[in-house]
Amino acid sequence: MNQNDAISIKTNEKNLVLQAQAGNFKAFTTLIEGYRSRIFGLALKLAKNREDADDIFQETFLKAIDNITKFRTESSFGTWLYTIAVNVVRARYGRDNKKELLPIEEYLPVKHGHPDGELPQLFDWNDPLSKLTNREVQTRLDQAIAELPLKYRLPFLLRYTQDMRVQEVADTLKLSLAATKTRILRARLALRKNLNDYFLEEKFDG
Questions:
Q1: pLDDT at position 165
Q2: Which pLDDT value is given to residue 60?
Q3: Per CATH, which fold does 3-93 belong to?
């Protein structure tokens, strides 16, 4: 997509927002169609089951309809929509949002506690000898992501499954840029450790 195309889409989005705010439901429907699959995909990764994902999806768009007149075009419509979805998820799984990961230092290789002062082995995820199929890897990755506390899972998924820039993630979650970067880093480190331990177990048990 070139710059002119991007400007055209942005301008069209603003026009659709204005029409939707004036009561044009067809304009609103056109707006949300561009985000339907992405919002539902995010809901599937955040929900505990498909039924919950459907509920999150439906509630997000109902809240968007009810609050479209409050939307201000300083941010993109997509960011606003993601913010609504995030708030729906937080309300539903608020208790999970309080869970914490280990400190960053706990995920870094250290010599202390390992025989002969050796560093803990970091398994090569691209090891051609691994018996794991791509589907098995994806399944294990999905499980590992699902085990992350919500406060870390949200920014990680927005960054890497919704292709948001870190600043967009921060805006969506109403966090500082520094806090957002830290949460994404901690999520990545926790996932690396989770998958690394799993792949090492598969390698030596096989």
A1: 93
A2: 94
A3: Rna Polymerase Sigma Factor; Chain: A (1.10.1740)
Give the span between the Cα atoms of 172 and 166, in whole angstroms: 10
Whether residue 40 contacts residue 32, with contact meaning beta carbons closer than 8 Å, is answered with: no
CA angle 146, 187, 98 (to 5 degrees): 70
125 φ, ψ (degrees, to nearest 5): -65, -15
As a whole number of angstroms, the distance between CA 4 and CA 199 comes to 46
Which H, E and C letters describe 12-81, residue by residue?
HHHHHHHHHHCCCHHHHHHHHHCCHHHHHHHHHHHCCCHHHHHHHHHHHHHHHHHHHHHCCCCCCHHHHH
Distance CA 180, CA 159 (A): 10
Q: How far, in Å, are 23, 81, 127, 201 from residue 86 at the CA level? A: 25, 9, 37, 35
Helix, strand or coil for residue 115?
helix
Check pLDDT > 80 for residue 59: yes
As a whole number of angstroms, the distance between CA 111 and CA 122 comes to: 13
Q: How far is CA 62 from the centre of its chain?
A: 21
pTM of the model: 0.71
Q: Could you say which of 3.10.20.340, 1.10.10.10, 1.20.210.10, 3.30.365.10 is the CATH number of the domain covering 99-205?
A: 1.10.10.10
Q: Where are the domains of the chain?
A: 3-93, 99-205
Query: What are the C-alpha distances in Å from 80 to residues 27, 134, 172?
Result: 16, 34, 7
Residue 198: pLDDT over 80: no
